[in-house]
Amino acid sequence: MRFRAKILDVACLNHFTRVINTIAKLAKTCTLRLTPGKLYFILTDKVANGGVSMWCELSQGNFFDEFQMEGVAAEHNEIYLELMPENLSRALKTAQNAKTVKIKLTNKHCPCLTVAVELPSLASSSRIVTHDIPVAVIPRRLWNDFKEPSVPDFDVSIYLPVLKTMKSVVERMKNLSNSIVIEANLNGEMNLKIETDLVSVTTHFKDLGNPPWVLDGDSQNSTQDRDPETMAEARVDIKKLQQLLAGQQVNPTKALCNIVSKRIVHFILLHEDVYLQYFIPALA
Amino acid sequence: MPLLLPAGAGAGAGAGAGADGSGARYVLVASLDKARHLSTMLRAVHFRDVATCVATANGLKAGIFQEFVVQEESVTFRINLTILLDCLTIFGTSSLPGTSTALRMCYCGYGYPLTLFLEEGGVVTVCKINTQEPEETLDFDFCSTNVVNKIILQSEGLREAFAELDMTSDVLQITMSPEKPYFRLSTFGNAGSAHLDYLKESDLMEVFQCNQTQTNRYKISLLKPSTKALALSCKVSIRTDTRGFLSLQYMIRNEDGQICFVEYYCCPDEDVAETEL
């Protein structure tokens, strides 16, 4: 098993850092899957995560100038690692003015992702800061746990409103309540609601638009029959929603959510070349 | 800014929404172009979680509201100020140039929640905050005819002084006099006593009308919350009456040039003899 990669371009480095920072906000521990063409950050819906799950996909060519990997075996040319993205985030913090950043899979006293940051220096020799991030190698027999989630059979699919507004509103609502109701209909309307003994607050978004999904067979019929005014709703933990929104720094290219009434809310965010899916289950 | 839609938005409003949308069933309706003006001012008095709100035809800062209709003589209710502030700033506290939050505040009367309609950029938020029994408000009975000493200072002169008050002192002693030291703030803390004197000729002093030497002590814990209002104000008026009661009036000017006042009253600490220098 081998992995080595290098980033030379400052813009790529900043972009990669932003992605890692977003992931770090969403998951304390997650799985990094490496393939010859892509990197994936995966979080599966264990009880410990409060049932949320995440799938984030990046094309390595958009970030790395060099990228070489050899998986566990020829027919399974992939590597699965468990790590804490916050460690990677911290290592990249020191790389703000770096000339190069190299990431390598190593075996020090335990398997590590070693991040070597070459910093500019006045002397002829450069300074290198090295971070060893402990990782756990996930054996092949467990790889099935980390399959790409399928789009659920949703009741309503809707584009998200301007994230900045959604972020502000959800942050304030977090002060007032622990849970939030997300509801939307096929008329491009979405409401965020909280209700407690002391206060109730509802924010109404209009004209958001509903993405046109190409569905096969029965699913297509069910959404076509649906009354456009009827709301699909789910009550979720407000902190999870706030964490998702907090991690989004710039307005994404595409942002939408699929609601399965009373079951789950599925977010899809596409930002340039980063594809993120995030599932928040409904509260009982 | 467009006027907000009162009824219709927010189902299940119950008695809170005027059925015809004209607000005819509301006891109090107030509309404001920039919710931030109200939230800024409320922050000045936000040192307790709950505030009593009294609205009369003149009251509740009618100057800053574009529309202000009160059906009854006076409307009083108690409300959680922290929640009110969170609702008023639902769209965030930083403002982009050209954007502002429009506000309409409606109240149906005793037992009903205070309803806020806020709108920014086409997005409407409706908040219903439960109100509580109004508390007895203290009447300090401070009337201008009993004022003995009066000073109006520019706030910047007092801000640093108040920020640096020795909090180990139980009291803040205020001396006002037609003679030296004119205006003196004193504390008596663990490290010793500190005196801060303001000259009556100082640039910061706008009005100096002291007729009698008065020295009064006030519990510092009672005055410290007023620093919030001081921070937002441009001018402050300090007056004492024949009983040694203190009135602090802060003039707050918002970014549109509108003026509001926040008043504090404090009674002197009982254990101390007066007119001592």
UniProtKB/TrEMBL annotation, chain A:
It comes from the Eukaryota. Gene3D superfamilies: 3.70.10.10. One of its GO terms (cellular component) is cytosol. SUPFAM superfamilies: DNA clamp. The keyword Amino-acid biosynthesis does not apply. Keywords: Cytoplasm, DNA damage, Nucleus. Its main location: cytoplasm. It is found in: Cytoplasm, Cytosol; Nucleus. Belongs to the HUS1 family. Component of the toroidal 9-1-1 (RAD9-RAD1-HUS1) complex, composed of RAD9A, RAD1 and HUS1. The 9-1-1 complex associates with LIG1, POLB, FEN1, RAD17, HDAC1, RPA1 and RPA2. The 9-1-1 complex associates with the RAD17-RFC complex. HUS1 interacts with POLB, HDAC1, FEN1, PCNA and RAD9B. HUS1 does not interact with RAD17. Interacts with DNAJC7. Component of the 9-1-1 cell-cycle checkpoint response complex that plays a major role in DNA repair. The 9-1-1 complex is recruited to DNA lesion upon damage by the RAD17-replication factor C (RFC) clamp loader complex. Acts then as a sliding clamp platform on DNA for several proteins involved in long-patch base excision repair (LP-BER). This is Checkpoint protein. It comes from Alligator mississippiensis.
